[in-house]
Amino acid sequence: MEDRKAYYNYLHDIYFPQLPEGHNFDLQLKNPYTWTDYIHLTDGTRVLDPGYQTRDKLHSNFLFTGLIHNEALVMQFLSCMANQNWLQRFGNVKMLLWIPNSSAVKIMARPDTRERAKCSVVRETFCDAKLIATPDDEKSLKSFNNNLLSNDDPIIFNPKSFSKASKYTLIEFNPKDHDLDAFAWDYVVKQLMASRNTPLDKSLNHLGPAAADFFVTKIPLNLLGKVPKNLTSEEFKFLLEVFQSWPFKPDSLLETVSFGKEM
Amino acid sequence: MLSTVARKRILNRRSPAVLVQAFKRTNVSSASSLQNNLIEELKHISLGSKTPGRINVKSDEEVHANKWSTPYDGVFRQSHSKEVMRLWSLLDVCLDSSQFERAESILTTLHPLSIEDNFSFVDDFNKYLNKFAPLASPTEIEAVVANWRSSGKLQTNARTDAIIINALMTKNNPYEKYLLPYLSGRADFRSLLRNVDVFGLQNLKLIVEQNNLDIKFVPAAYRDLITIDNNVEDTNEVTHETNISSSSSPTTTSTTTTTTSPLLEPLMGSADYEPAVLNKQNAEELKSVDTFGMKVIRHTLLSLEPDLNSKLLEKFNEKLEEKLEFFTNDSETQANFFEVYKSLPLDKRDLFEEALNEFNVERQTALENKSIEAAQEKWKHEYEEIKKRGDLGMSKSLNARLWGWFEQMMPLVRDEIERCKNVDDIQIKTLKNEAFAQHSERKKYAPYLRLLDPKKVTVITILEMLKNNSTGGISEGMRTARAVLSVSKALELEFRSEQILNTEKNFVKNFDNSKLSNPKNLKKYSMSLSNFKNDVISDMKVYWPQDIKVKIGSVLISILMHVAKVEVSGVDPSTKQLVRGEAPAFYHSFQYHNGAKIGILKIHKVLSSQLSADKLVGAVQPQSLPMLIQPRPWTSWNNGAYYYSQNQIIRLRDSPEQLAYIKASSDKLDKVYDGLNVLGNTAWTVNERVFKVMSKIWNTGDEFLDIPKAHESLELPEVPPRSSDPSVLNEWKIKVKALQDKYATDRSTRCDANYKLEIARAFLGEKFYFPHNLDFRGRAYPISPNFNHMGSDLSRGLLLFWKGKEIGEEGLRWLKIHLANLFGIDKAPLNEREAFVNDNIELVKRAAEDPMANQEWWTKADKPWQALATIIDLADALKLPDPTKHISHQPVHQDGTCNGLQHYAALGGDVEGATQVNLAPSDKPQDVYTHVAKLVRAKLEEAAANGDENARMLKDNIKRKVVKQTVMTNVYGVTQVGATNQIHKQLQNVFSEDQSYKLSVYLTKVVFASMRELFEGAHLIQDWLAICAKMISKSVRIDIDSYEEMGPKKKPSFMASVIWTTPLDLPIVQPYRAIVKKQIQTNLQTVFIQDPYELHQVDARKQMAAFPPNFIHSLDASHMLLSASSCSKKGLEFAAVHDSYWTHACDVGEMSESLRETFIELHQVDLIARLKDEFDERYKGFLQLIEIPYKSEVGKKILAMRKELTSQLGRPVTLGDEVYLERQRQLLLNSGDENKIAKGESMVTTVSLLENEDLKDLTSAQAMKSMKNSLAEELEESLENTNEYEEEEELKKPVKKSAQKLKVFAPLRLPDIPPKGDFDVNDLRNSKYFFS
DNA sequence: CCACTAAATACTGATATAAGTAATAGAAAATAT
DNA sequence: ATATTTTCTACCGACAATATCAGTATTTAGAGC
């Protein structure tokens, strides 16, 4: 997908003719950064029609792959898995992505680690992810959890053998089905992870006025003593459930700071 | 305890002064050996390498603390080091809480610092002794003094003697031996008796009497008082302004202790003056009548009435010879003084005002001192009322709820304060982790918090928290940082007022006031008191440190959060049952903005919606309301405005440098004070008729003019299903964000309007004043927020001059013109404007008669509320048989037409420009915007004719409005991008989305070009100012700044900000510097704040961008203040909003003349030349970092010299080394010693090589351009043979070759001032549209 | 009482947080090479 | 020292990101004399 005319022309006139016989590439005059261009790709022109498959398994004939330099984009992809929209509307479409090492460390972080942050809870909740390959880079290797390394057993390649790729890690994302309220889930996880090393009996209060008082009656004591960064996605789901049963929860869960920009 | 680390750090610091000494000692016999010696020294110092005790000693802040801004000014950028400031602050609070041991240990720490930091230690000691002495026995006192003296640390002064003597006197001990030095003439009695605050009036009198001292020894301000007995017949007239005699004045002491004294009985029988009494409950009652903030004010005002000394009332009536009744026993009924005043015959008015003033003196005192208690009383009162009625409305009444909070919170606060007092006695070992953390935090803030009264603390915390609702872009809540700061700022303010009050009480303690029944004596007494207060206030120099403030704020807020509860209800999702319960009113939470985490204190939706449903949005800072009497006149930088708080004349922007400058020039600012006092002395009242209309509309809750609708709650568009395309979801989010923003801003504007109305309501019928101060450029602003004449159309429409003047024929004409202006007819000749009103005179009458029913006309005005006010006034006049006899209170405005450009045009002498902004005489008013639009159109026509597609599309769409904002902001230095956005906004509706922006970009360029053409001279000046600012903020002072850290890697640090003085001698310091903030731990969260006492590198970009507009504003501010003084001298009422000047209709002509004359006077001098001279002086000896061509002659010389130095040093020479050498040269040159000067002259440095070079040639645009051109050519060549596909890539390839440039320091030399055009400012005299 | 060490605490600085990079242009500052 | 990337884009009234962690500096506790 390329929508810059000049570059498109170059690809079309010069690059594509040079490709080996029988290649499987198709060039489209579209902007890969525009969500809607994908709709046009899959609906209107029928260029790409993987067909819908149920969510009890991975999509069998559609794979999305790419090197995503921009971390925000990766996060967007993750949220597409959560929302089951965009390409994920065809089913649980596997995504095989090269992403920056630093992002990989964050996203793959396990509970109870220093790196544990909201995005890794997202990953854990909405997909099964596997570390496929990562460069032999001391800094990022150290940051990956040992458990993770032994479980996923990634290929650890010599960064020198791929000069450009040395900053990127290959991860396989396999989306999972779920039926969570995205806004509420996001709110709960966000507020709790804001102070991720504060025991729940305190940090729960960020969810609403005297929230902890309510939770205390609903959740086991040992959970109450835990700190958010040590919680698993399942525990978050549980907390969400409790939160949603709370009569006095705040009305608006997506408030933002508005900066009064004057005329 | 002060951390000993901090102390050690200070002790280790080698002050710059010491270094200078060291260098000065370098004496050498010949120039060459001098050079050699210096080289040796350089080697030794070995800049950039790690010699122990040299490089590492100083942190950045330490290096820059205590520096003169420039040698020219002799003003310290930073008065004292951070540590000293902190210690002083701590010393103050320890003394206030009588912790003498701790105070002594602070003194011990301070002493060594006093030597380094060059402050006088004895002052601090005296402070201590003065607090200690009253509580100690004479022997103890003497022992302490002797002790300190013998340690060699203390040299006592006259004040020390005064303290000792006073202590002995008070304890009836003999004190004569301390008088000996004075009696014997070895010491001056004056210096002893100057310490009136130590002695107090009574002892001062005693000491004079007992020793038969010459009265001349007593400071002049107090002599009269001391001698009351001796010469009652003294004919010396005491000039008496409205000086406040405080509540501690002997005549009224009894009233100060309580605000709940019984209501005043009805004084006289009949209520003949029906119109004079406004029953506010029955009058246009605001729905928001429950607004407790306002009740606070009203209650405060009202509660004073019972306190009213009946004598005063008698005086009232005595003077008027007629009995008036103002007060009934209905506490909600308040006198409408304005109606009384108006109803009086002219000859009685003065007397009435005199009486009113005396009356208001009392009320003002109470307003400033009692409003906090009043709030508390009000809550309690309402609570009890409801309880008595057995009402179920308890939860509905906010005040009752607040009382509940208060009752719960106050004991906790008291406990906390108690813990603070005992903080040193706690056994640390007994504490567990959390308690220990709490304890160690408490230790830091305890000395401050323990000084406060728990009741006041509680009330203030509650008020501030409610006041902050919906601020900071949070719809239901506030930012934590803001909340904690605002609470503690309010506390500090209150504490200071209290201190002033107490000092004052102390001062008059035991004073025999039997003689004060004599009015003359009373006047003397209050004069002295006022003088005394000035002295006290000037002396207060210590502030609570920022980090302490946030800690205190957060502790108190935590307590409040803990107790403040509201009743809530919600639906249980599972059972669908309605559940009731109690929940905290506040909770702490976070929100993210672009990944930045922001701490939020949310107000519970129940409370928040109660607040908005009841149209009650908060409380008013009761300390800064409009004043009932003339503000305390400005007499120094921190003396003026309110009577019981310290107000700074400049709104400092956390800049110690600004503070230092304003302090230093405090006694040269009479012209500024004069002008400012004129503004403050303008009396106002509320336009009741407009107010009635407004409140009627307000109560509907509907949108009306600039009042937004009262949203009940925010309704969001339906959430799209989560599986929608991300683009759909994003769109929805954007929509939601927009709605939330609108909701938040609507809410805050409604809030704001509510404040305005409520304050106006409280001041209905009152005579009041707005105390003013200045922003750092010298522009004046009313100190009281929300409701003032500088606010929106709404507030302006509500304000009338208290004083009325007969309108006369001319005045009537001006009133009409004013009305036309308000309708937006302000570009037509005056006659046409007048005609516009005459043509619509029926509409005027109808609108005035019933504004609500006939709203279609006046609401269409540009400024509808002011138009309505004017309409009413005009209609009143027309009702009279002779309209010219109408007494008008309506302010009439004269606005500068693009005032910034007027000043620019005058400075640049642009003839055409001057004409366009009405400096030059003309038959009809010129409109710059129209003119620029015309110019632009012409240009576009031409370009279109040449086949320019953009121009063709645009040429018929250039309206005045399209260019207006850009022309206006051009003065402020708007950039291309900014202007493009502005124009884009205007073109959006005309062109399609995708065309619009491209066209805007094109149009912006044309507009800029046209502006430049029209105001050529002005733009040259603008550029010149910007260049100067840039050069200055990129220059270094070699004698102090930055050479230390100029090692091989480091860049020099630029510390010089742009500083200038206005024609009124007000020093302006641009505060733009790097912002360095730190996270401070508090109870709730960390808070990210900067320490206002630290100085950092200048922000050159901002300095440059802001200097031209700031300079112009400093001029228009001067013009305004001069005009104010001038108008006041002529007896005109005067008010101003920057470039809009207000007076009575009948005086417009005279005012116009005044402001023309002052403008001419201002520009009589070549202000730019004056500025250049000032800069040249101020920044003399500064160096600038420039780049010169490698190959120039000097360049070669410098290279050679560097090579030489490098070989001599045995290491690469650095810029720092060069600065060092230059500095030595300067030291020699300025030494005053002929020998040394000769040596200096023979010395050659890299800088001196450049001294006589024309830097312009070296760095000129031409030289650089020619280099760039040749490079560009090469680039083009290389591009020629690229094919079209690779073009993009090729373009990005870096240019390999670049001009060889040499970085060197050269003397700072500002460019010559641009030539001036031919316009003569004296022509202005005949321009009638200058202001209109 | 002192000098000493180890443990505890305090202070500092770095980093992540959220989550489309992009409507445009051009200089200056900051950072990377 | 030079090249690339990032930042910023109209003045004033009117300031505000925070939690956590690692590493270092400083203080304190404690044992021993």
From TrEMBL, chain A:
GO terms for biological process: transcription initiation at mitochondrial promoter. It is found in: Mitochondrion. One of its GO terms (molecular function) is mitochondrial transcription factor activity. GO terms for cellular component: mitochondrial DNA-directed RNA polymerase complex; mitochondrial matrix. Gene3D superfamilies: Ribosomal RNA adenine dimethylase-like, domain 2, Vaccinia Virus protein VP39. S-adenosyl-L-methionine binds at M1, E2. Keywords: Methyltransferase, RNA-binding, rRNA processing, S-adenosyl-L-methionine, Transferase. Its EC number is 2.1.1.-. Pfam families: RrnaAD. PROSITE patterns: SAM_RNA_A_N6_MT. Mitochondrial transcription factor that confers selective promoter recognition on the core subunit of the yeast mitochondrial RNA polymerase. Interacts with DNA in a non-specific manner. PANTHER family: DIMETHYLADENOSINE TRANSFERASE, DIMETHYLADENOSINE TRANSFERASE 1, MITOCHONDRIAL. Belongs to the class I-like SAM-binding methyltransferase superfamily. rRNA adenine N(6)-methyltransferase family. This is rRNA adenine N(6)-methyltransferase. It comes from Wickerhamomyces ciferrii (strain ATCC 14091 / BCRC 22168 / CBS 111 / JCM 3599 / NBRC 0793 / NRRL Y-1031 F-60-10).
Automatic annotation (TrEMBL), chain B:
Residues 1273-1289 have a biased composition (Acidic residues). Residues 245-262 have a biased composition (Low complexity). Coiled coil: none annotated. InterPro entries: DNA-dir_RNA_pol_helix_hairp_sf (IPR024075), DNA-dir_Rpol_C_phage-type (IPR046950), DNA-dir_Rpol_phage-type (IPR002092), DNA/RNA_pol_sf (IPR043502), RNA_POL_N_sf (IPR037159), RPOL_N (IPR029262). It comes from Wickerhamomyces ciferrii (strain ATCC 14091 / BCRC 22168 / CBS 111 / JCM 3599 / NBRC 0793 / NRRL Y-1031 F-60-10). Signal peptide: none annotated. Its main location: mitochondrion. This is DNA-directed RNA polymerase. PANTHER family: DNA-DIRECTED RNA POLYMERASE, MITOCHONDRIAL. DNA-dependent RNA polymerase catalyzes the transcription of DNA into RNA using the four ribonucleoside triphosphates as substrates. One of its GO terms (molecular function) is DNA-directed RNA polymerase activity. The lineage of its organism: Eukaryota, Fungi, Dikarya, Ascomycota, Saccharomycotina. Its EC number is 2.7.7.6. GO terms for biological process: mitochondrial transcription. Residues 237-266, 1272-1296 are annotated as: Disordered. It comes from the Eukaryota. The keyword Coiled coil does not apply. Gene3D superfamilies: 1.10.287.260, 1.10.287.280, 5' to 3' exonuclease, C-terminal subdomain, DNA-directed RNA polymerase, N-terminal domain. The keyword Chloroplast does not apply. It is an enzyme of class 2 (transferase). Keywords: DNA-directed RNA polymerase, Mitochondrion, Nucleotidyltransferase, Transcription, Transferase, Transit peptide. PROSITE patterns: RNA_POL_PHAGE_1, RNA_POL_PHAGE_2. Residues 362-681 form the DNA-directed RNA polymerase N-terminal domain. It is found in: Mitochondrion. GO terms for cellular component: mitochondrial DNA-directed RNA polymerase complex.
